[in-house]
Amino acid sequence: MTGLESEGSQVRRAVCPGSFDPITNGHLDIIARASRLYDEVYVAVMINQSKKGLFAIEERIDLIGRVTAEYGNVRVESFHGLLVDFCKEREIPAIVKGLRAVSDFDYELQMAQMNNGLSGVETLFMPTNPTYSFLSSSLVKEVATWGGDVSHLVPPLVHDALADRLRRN
What we know:
The chain has 6 helices and 5 strands.
């Protein structure tokens, strides 16, 4: 046993939810930091039937799995419906969310309060690394669509997949 374990101790689990279309270095920063704080981190990739993503859900799961493989304690799964149900099914007591700006906090606080009220799941807010404070998947897609260089905003594997997808579209 390590110093963190004791007989009968529970595995500390958290989830990082999002659409990740595509995953950015900002997302990856939050996931990496959460993976150092928790025994298991689930990356829950949201399925939104009303929204057509650039990447199919299976492609996003594959890309995220590949760029988070080095952490060893990160699992990537899709979910549809309420995040609290995803958490309940996997005995996950905590949601980890990155906050870029005060404007994110207003919406995320309401979601955190609703999730806690529905199921008791706690939300932990992690401030985004200032390097990524402006970054979003939507912005990456828009800049890349117009030929802008986003190679410093996404992992190399994701950059290649993004460039390939935009060439074919």
